[in-house]
Amino acid sequence: VFTSCMLNIFGVVIFLRTGWTVGNAGIALSLFIVLLTLLISLIPVLSAIGIIDHIDHIESGGIYFVLTHILGARIGATVGILYCFGQAASISLFSSGFGESLAETTSWDNHWAARTIALIAALTILGIILAGVKWVVKLQLLLLAVLVISVLDFVVGTFAHTDLANGLTGYKEENMVKNINPKFSEGQSFFTVFGVFFSTATGIMAGINMSGDLKNPGENIPTGTLAALGVSGLLYMLFALLLGAVCTREALLSDYMIASKVALVGVLFLFGLYISSLSSCLGAQYAAPRIIQCIGRDSVIPLIKALGKGRGANQEPYAASIFVGLIAIILILIGNVNSLAPVVTMPFLMTYAAVNYAYFKLVMCMDLQKRRKLIEEGVLVDDTPKSPKNEETRLVSKAEMMDGLLAKDYGTGIENGQIVGGNTVPDVTEKSDVGEKENLDKDTKEDNVGVPVDNGGVTVDSIGVTVDNVGISMDNSEDDAGNNTSMIVDNRGNEDGGNQGDTNTDVDYCELDVGEETELYSKENEKEESKKKIDNLKPKPCYPKSHFTVEIEQKRWTVYSQLVNRWISLAGAFASVFMMFLIHWGYALANISAGLLIYIYIGQTNPGVMKGIAYDFNFARWVQSLWEKLRRRSPNQHRVVKMDTSIPYEITLFQVTEENPDFSNRERRHHSSVVKIISP
């Protein structure tokens, strides 16, 4: 992970644009740009680490899998496509840097010469990927060693020689004084310079994209990614300080290859530059098609479903690789390094914002589940302020619901007030015939469609219960903290539908949303023996477990888990979006608009995609609840909690026949007889 991240982070921009950055922003602001870049990159890395700590098994798909697991396939695919576009743009950026440096080295002072070299490099990388030459990927340690040699060549060169003709004066205090303050050239500003330099940090998610290939991703990804970010940050600052100390400002602004002239042996430095460019291209060309393949294979976006197909024994994504390569070629023909860098920056900033928000939403949803569990157990009182929209909505425990059901007579043999949580229920019809009781037991086993009660094995049978005006819905109901309060009642009275705690029965209950009415029912297992008691019958689950039943908890504890904070992640999400507009508001609007179009397209063509495990939390409702709390900041001097014991819903009886004492001695089932007509 460390090697892959270093090869993707320490890219062509460091070799070609660090001097230009110092010349425009000065040494002080250049160091600030480096620190700001590291900070903006560090927050999503920590957020991703926090998310990984809450996932049992990390599958392939990289950033797409992480976002889909938390935010749902709709958002995951949207951000995943934009991220892959950013990877394709980075291929064009690194190829353009390679072409620019090689053209200047060979004295081909022509933009089209640089673009031609860049096109050849991009096509070569695409050919290597399509040929399946995996030995290139396995040479990462050797490539990293070449980068280390080129950095040492640069550092030694600052002490070893001078070149006044090219603006290399050696270490002078005069250079530090003149270069400490910013002096932006025409058309440049702090944010344009930052947009160019920030593209160096776009490879920080390379470790997460390797999630499917790692034996222990929960430990390897945090360690390798943070180590690579720290080492590259130190090298960034080292380059900025040394170039500002030994070069004149005019040389920094006018000569993109000034760093190669500072190096002791320029060939080694250039070799490192070329290796850096090609390895970054190779990493992006290898990772992006696999993310697109995962999206196409999951059929989230029908338009690119064909890109999900693979060839060969390893299902290599040839179609997706060609698609990414074509995008890179088009961008190479359009722009150069300075114009492509902001284009590369935008999708990655959006991805970082999505990762930060995903961790925030995950932790908020986990806290919501814990709060619901405490409310169920009676430890907490649900004193959440109700908005006018949801004033009538409240959670109903199983005990309350069954007390209300059993306290009334709905033609089931239970008289008013006879049972409220008791253990025995005398039948309304006393039967002395043993055969009648056996028939009743047999018919109950075969046709029971009721609401089993844990108390004494009571079954409320042969009724249809309609629950009106509860305000509970599988999909649409939310509490005032912006969180879904859909209730799946189980045999312990849980309201969140989670499998929390131990139980001695497998009875599952379902809530079916039928518009304004909600019907609670269960189906019993038809293979149970006829002589077993009704309370031991095990009904089949009537609805598959969904995302509502997923209990979020931290799966592993690491040292890095202590560094993650939900509020820092939320601030990082807003900061990433804010920086997008500061760098280039046009590109920012274009990326956001593209994301919205993809999001709407998925909703129209594939509305049934998987929702994330943090779906219960709703950010808009959470903000609204905070605003409502701020409006009621005056403390209540006398606070009284009044428990409402009445039934919060109406119950309507559905019964085929009315009560009649004429046939009270017969069991409750349909009877038939054969009448033979005798002809006269």
From TrEMBL:
One of its GO terms (cellular component) is membrane. GO terms for molecular function: potassium:chloride symporter activity. It comes from Paramuricea clavata (Red gorgonian). Residues 421-457 are annotated as: Disordered. Its main location: membrane. The keyword DNA-binding does not apply. This is Solute carrier family 12 member 9. The chain crosses the membrane at residues 27-52, 64-92, 112-133, 140-160, 190-212, 224-246, 258-275, 318-337, 343-364, 563-579. One of its GO terms (biological process) is potassium ion import across plasma membrane. InterPro entries: AA-permease/SLC12A_dom (IPR004841), SLC12A_fam (IPR004842). Pfam families: AA_permease (PF00324). Keywords: Membrane, Transmembrane, Transmembrane helix, Transport. Residues 428-448 have a biased composition (Basic and acidic residues). It is a multi-pass membrane protein.
